[in-house]
Amino acid sequence: MSRRNRGVMSDQFKYELAKDLGFYDTVQREGWGGIRTKDAGNMVKRAIQIAEQASKQQPPQQPPRY
């Protein structure tokens, strides 16, 4: 499987985002192809925000010592 075909977000995370953003019912009825482009973009933006928040909460990694 190529990297392009492999999903970066887990299905569970995508469903949680869809619920939070209000289009979960559409996904349930029509699948992911039924959502609007705007909704998909908002989902990606929210996922990036969550990832950025998570990275800020982790302590900075030290460079390797040789």
Rounded average pLDDT: 87
General shape:
elongated
Helix/strand-derived category reads mainly alpha
Number of strands: 0
Q: What share of the residues lie within helices?
A: 55-70%
- The Rg value, from CA coordinates, equals 16 Å
Q: Beta-strand level of the residues, as a percent range? A: under 5%
Through-space gap between termini = 36 Å
- Number of helical segments? 3
Secondary-structure element pattern, one letter each: HHH
Instruction: Sketch the major β-sheet.
Output: none
Low-confidence stretches are: none
Describe the model:
This protein has 66 residues and is mostly helical. The protein contains three helices and no strands. It has helices at residues 11-21, 24-30, 37-57. Helix 1 crosses helix 3. The longest helix is centred in the last third of the chain and has 21 residues, at 37-57. It is elongated, with a radius of gyration of 16 Å.
Q: Topology of this protein?
A:
Elements (H helix, E strand, L loop, with lengths): L10 H11 L2 H7 L6 H21 L9
